[in-house]
Design goal:
The protein is an all-alpha fold. The chain has one domain: Ferritin, core subunit, four-helix bundle (Ferritin, Up-down Bundle). It is built from five helices and no strands. It is an enzyme of class 1 (oxidoreductase).
């Protein structure tokens, strides 16, 4: 099935975002592991895997629509030098992803590709949960202070 060229471009842009997110979360995960924060390491590692699954779904849909997945473009990666900066970078990335998915969902509806819209809505739900998880950790830090929070992440 030949897909709409504008929608295929949007799907490739989302793929670029997801591939960048995989790398950002992976680096944050390994940094936390290096610092001995095993719970944060697992948190970031799970997010990297989630983003990888999103990329896989987008690649599958692009191929179904007879497009060419562009996997050589990565969205800008912002590595935080400490946990607060990591969470701030991840928060900004998730907010950007949510906006991009909402825009792509509108476009998919406009071009009457409701299967793609449904796929994008599913991924958007995951991105909403990711943002909620980040904000939860940021709230814990603000309530406990960073040093106390970090003692809970060992």
């Amino acid at each position: 099935m030949k897909g709409n060229p504008e929608l295929l471009a949007a799907l490739n842009a989302l793929l670029s975002d997801e591939l960048g997110a995989v790398n950002q979360y992976m680096v944050h995960s390994e940094m936390c592991a290096n610092w001995g924060y095993e719970k944060l390491h697992k948190h970031f590692e799970k997010r990297a895997i989630d983003e990888m699954k999103h990329a896989e779904k987008l690649i599958g849909r692009i191929l179904f629509l007879e497009g060419i997945p562009i996997v050589s473009n990565l969205a800008p990666i912002k590595i935080g030098s400490d946990v607060n900066k990591q969470l701030a970078s991840d928060n900004a990335a998730e907010i950007g992803a949510i906006k991009a998915y909402n825009d792509a969902i509108i476009l998919a509806g406009e071009v009457r590709d409701f299967a793609t819209r449904e796929l994008l809505e599913s991924i958007l739900g995951d991105e909403d949960r990711h943002l909620d998880g980040i904000e939860e950790l940021q709230d814990q830090i603000s309530h406990m202070t960073l040093p106390i929070f970090l003692t809970t992440q060992v």
